[in-house]
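Comment thread on ticket #2218

A.B. wrote:
> Attaching the input chain for the structure job we discussed in standup.
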Amino acid sequence: MTPSSTLTLSSVFFDGPWSWGGAGENRIQFNADGTGSLYCGAGFTRLIAANFSWTTPDREQLEKSIDINLQRESSTTVVVAELQMQITLTTAQPPNHDHLLLNEYYVRETAFGSKVFTIRIEKGAFLEQQHKRLAKSIPPLGRYNWRLVFEKSPMPLYADWKEEALRYIEYARLWDCTEFVNHLILRRPGVRSQYGRAQSRQCLFL
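C.D. wrote:
> Ran it. Output below, let me know if you need it in another format.
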């Protein structure tokens, strides 16, 4: 039997986490059941680990078939889909993150609730956004096959952060996180994985 030459975009979209950078401290995960989780940290300090729900009127975009050749390395950027999505961030923490000094300890009430985003799903060969911004001080781990581009950051705005968090976030400008990558395709020689098991899944599609 000949293997199928196509797969659905959902198999990529839900195969998270999607990373902004920071050794996996800043990442977003979407689940097929309409839930997800957002993680945010700086300086090896976890600031946010919060569950969210999501809905989109463009769900059919995730079910469309894409050519499996799109999984192969290419320097050409292709916009595969664009979604309008409502994300409702909560203070509830994911499993194994039951810690008092998270979420509402660092961010104001205005950070939680529903916001609408436009999200592009792109294929190419991408660096983590953190490494593009801080390239001189943080060498990139490698390049990634897939990228989510938000027109505005899903992280809390600068005004949403409490004073307790400012010393952690100002250097990295976490409120400007708009790009998240997945599926590592080319690792810089001599660099070991920073993401453990999650990153080994990112290396699946070569």
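A.B. wrote:
> Thanks. Noting for the ticket: The two ends are 22 Å apart (CA to CA).
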